[in-house]
Amino acid sequence: MMGVNREQKELFSYRVDLDRRVRSDNPLGKIKEEVDFSWIRGEVEHLYGYNGNESVDPVMIVKLLLLLYWDNVRSERELMKIVCERLDYLWFLGLGLDDEVPNHSVLSKARARWGREVFEKLFVETVRRSVRAELVWGERVHVDGSLIEADASAQSVVEGPAELMEELKLAYSAQERKLTGNLGERYYKPVNERLMSTTDPDAPNVRRTKGGHQGESRARYKNHRVVDDENGVITAMQTTGGDVEENRPLEELLEQHDGQKRGQELIFAISFS
User: Fold this and answer.
1) For residues 87-114, average pLDDT
2) Contact 157, 205 (CB under 8 A)
């Protein structure tokens, strides 16, 4: 006899156990089992007060940021919508079915509260723990750069003579000339000197070349990184304007990589907060 599912909303969910609902070979399970995130609280504890409303657990904030890139979710708003629908996300975050998912604004607030220095420390400590766990070989690396879209629409881009654009950048307090890779280089020539985004003047307008074809010129940054060959661990990084060629910060990136391997204190060249 053919069965027919008769939908009925359960009033109580006492028997729901996410440990049993999430499959044992879920990749997030390996991370949850092997990675201890608790040390993050000690890194940011001094940034919180001793009374008032309780914040979202810093460990959950870092896990949310991890999920954002884990499945290449396009925005933080979209991530929070997905969390409600994914049992493995809830399980990884330590939330139950009836727990409230944090608002997307907690991530932007955490970035503002923690600042660049804290995130640099988190990155350095993560790499150090990877080294101690023998996940980093340190002898063979890959270096690459990726263009990152600036948070600026195409409508914000204005065009004019190069001299006028230079004055506008000064008026908007742009820091382009101070970018790593540009400062003091005799032969450096910024691309598209006649274009500037009024909402993000630090981001040069460059084209993304893909499949042999050049796309639209947009305001973009570039993330340069060193990846250890053994297990794909990122050991060094640098963020510049999108017009900085990938070979320019190579020496500094390799110095960062060697310093991580030796456990030295490093100064990261991240150009923008």
Assistant:
1) 90
2) yes
Q: Please give the Cα distance from 163 to 166 (Å, whole number).
A: 5
Which tokens belong to 109?
């607030």
Q: Distance between CA 47 and CA 43 in Å, rounded?
A: 9
Q: For residue 145, which amino acid is it?
A: G
pLDDT bin (cut points 50, 70, 90) of residue 242 is: confident
This prediction has a pTM of 0.72
On the question of pLDDT at 194 being above 80, the answer is no
Distance, CA of 185 to CA of 169 (rounded, Å): 19
Q: CA angle 64-69-74, nearest 5°?
A: 95
Separation of alpha carbons 113 and 229, rounded Å: 34
Residue 180, pLDDT > 60, answer: no
| Sign of the CA dihedral running 122, 124, 127, 132 | negative
